[in-house]
Amino acid sequence: MAWILLFIAGLLEIGWAIGLKYTEGFTKLVPTVLTAGSMVASVVLLGLAVRTLPLGTAYAVWTGIGTVGTVILGIVLFSEPATAIRIGCILLIIAGIAGLKLTA
Q1: Are 31 and 19 in contact (CB under 8 A)?
Q2: Structure pTM?
Q3: Do residues 20 and 38 make contact, with C-beta atoms less than 8 angstroms apart?
Q4: For 11-52, what is each residue's pLDDT tens digit?
């Protein structure tokens, strides 16, 4: 169950990271409220997950999910570059996340 909570927390981290772009400097009410809500929910779920998961592993997986998801959505939504080096780095992050999960 802790891994599921952590995964959802990671998805919410992607949501608030992308949401920051849509708040336009916190000048738009709805995106700002949704972004803030995602931030709080993400951290709360992370906090619940670390009750049973190792802190270092959980934090690395949480930030890894957020990082990979945000980079991919940045490419898809905001036309950020999808170079071979960026894709390779994403794959390295995924490998690190998988390695940490396998050793937890």
Answers
A1: yes
A2: 0.89
A3: no
A4: 999 999 999 999 999 999 999 999 999 999 999 999 999 999
